[in-house]
Design goal:
The structure is a homodimer. By secondary structure, chain A is mainly alpha-helical. Chain A has two domains: 74 residues, Orthogonal Bundle (Multidrug-efflux Transporter Regulator, Chain: A, Domain 2); 54 residues. The termini of chain A are far apart. A two-stranded antiparallel sheet of chain A has the order 1-2. At the A-B interface, helix 3, helix 4, helix 5 and helix 6 of A face helix 3, helix 4, helix 5 and helix 6 of B. The first copy, chain A, binds a DNA duplex through helix 2.
DNA sequence: CCTTGACCTTCCCGTGACTGGAATCTTTAT
DNA sequence: ATAAAGATTCCAGTCACGGGAAGGTCAAGG
């Protein structure tokens, strides 16, 4: 399989796949013409990566997960630890965003939003 | 005021303040020794920037807000529009993160997290 | 056989918003 | 006089790619 075909199959842009090779996440073979040749295991890996990235795992976490995935004697606890760590990160991000939203929503609420220059949003940004 | 002093006052790292000057958000004067000299208006601007950034506004949005802030004849509707746009962005991010969290939490829930290699998290990442 | 167009290759630069570090002044304190 | 603190510029790196240039390869059509 050439890169275009596997790109379509996995939904990842060809550029991304080349990048994943660059940083050692996949190691496709090469044909006589220099083209990358992807086999089924590469397709699996790339699909895995696509899903893990969609869940917000960092590249390094993906690398870790891939290693665990390939290690048939891994402990599921190790996988779970990575996932739980990431869950915490997500929760923290959500909390931070929710706090921003609340503050900002309150400012917006108090702003008339008309032609007049008086604006509680700007005032709120000036100082407490 | 030198950069260290204003950095402490605004809570922004000196590096960040220099960067803000680089991209034209603030334009401190210069003393005879080449040091930046910050005046009160600079302090206000930097405080404003710090708060706006803390609320997640991008640098370009901050630039826009600063311009509105300096324009005494602005319409509060313009400010409100920027803020509402950003609120939408925040909501979208929260939704995306919540979806990740839910999916991931479900995978984690089903994983025993013990010494055995069987792991629903990895299986969930393999395919649907 | 030649050309066209689709596909592939590498390489380098740009993104956002900084952060770290090096090499070099200037000021301040002892 | 010297040492430390604080200032300056500039360069490089971060994360995870994306854009685009310059060029090699392949299949189809004339």
């Amino acid at each position: 399989m050439n890169i275009g075909e596997i790109a379509e199959q996995t939904g990842l842009p060809a550029k991304t796949i080349r990048y994943y090779e660059d940083i050692g996440l996949v190691t496709p073979q090469r044909g006589a013409n220099g083209y990358r040749v992807f086999r089924e295991t590469d397709a699996y890996k790339l699909t895995f990566l696509g899903r893990a990235r969609a869940l917000g795992f960092s590249i390094e976490q993906c690398r870790e997960l891939l290693a665990l995935w390939e290690d048939r004697s891994r402990a599921s606890a190790d996988v779970r630890a990575v996932a739980l760590g990431h869950l915490d990160d997500i929760e923290a991000k959500i909390s931070a965003l929710a706090a921003m939203r609340d503050t900002l929503a309150e400012l917006v609420q108090n702003c008339a939003g008309d032609d007049r220059p008086d604006c509680p949003i700007l005032k709120g940004l000036e100082g407490p």
